[in-house]
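Long-time lurker, first post. I've been practising inverse folding by hand and with some scripts of my own, and I keep getting stuck on stretches where the structure tokens seem ambiguous. Below is the full token string for one chain I'm working on. Before anyone asks, I'm not after the true native sequence, just a reasonable design that respects the backbone. If someone could post their per-position residues I'd love to compare against what I wrote down in my notebook.
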């Protein structure tokens, strides 16, 4: 095995029998195999272009960090949606905290103006209270539950 195959196996582990339903086990394994081939191809291409700049393990760690940052950003936008856009009232801080793995106080500060603006743009509408955000108006993230 190569370092590329090792990294692919670590990033995309195969499920043990019983972890997924038997009727889809083969499809899941095929999907994971395709994901492994994709990461191997990306890492090999980057290493071939410039191995010093794109060392495979460090590149894989960097790619994982980017995915983590994207997931954290998605969570912040979803929390903003739950607090500012849902009707007739916002989700409870405790429920959002439980779902996100954060504390209640962490939920209060998890999102700000940028996340609210991104949700407004994605939905094509203003917040539940109808207030539009602007660069001059900092987001009110301290709403009570």
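-- Answer (accepted) --
I ran through it position by position. Result:
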């Amino acid at each position: 095995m190569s370092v590329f195959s090792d990294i692919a196996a670590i990033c995309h582990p195969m499920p043990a029998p019983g972890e997924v339903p038997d009727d889809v086990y083969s499809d899941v394994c095929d999907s994971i195999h395709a994901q492994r081939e994709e990461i191997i191809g990306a890492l090999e291409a980057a290493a071939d272009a410039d191995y010093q700049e794109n060392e495979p393990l460090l590149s894989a760690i960097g790619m994982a960090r980017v995915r983590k940052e994207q997931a954290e950003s998605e969570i912040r936008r979803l929390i903003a949606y739950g607090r500012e856009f849902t009707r007739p009232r916002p989700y409870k801080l405790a429920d959002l905290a439980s779902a996100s793995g954060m504390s209640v106080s962490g939920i209060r500060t998890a999102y700000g103006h940028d996340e609210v603006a991104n949700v407004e743009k994605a939905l094509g509408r203003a917040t539940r209270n109808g207030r539009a955000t602007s660069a001059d108006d900092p987001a009110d993230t301290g709403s009570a539950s």
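A couple of notes from the structure itself: The mean pLDDT is 90. The radius of gyration is 21 Å. Happy to go over any region you disagree with.
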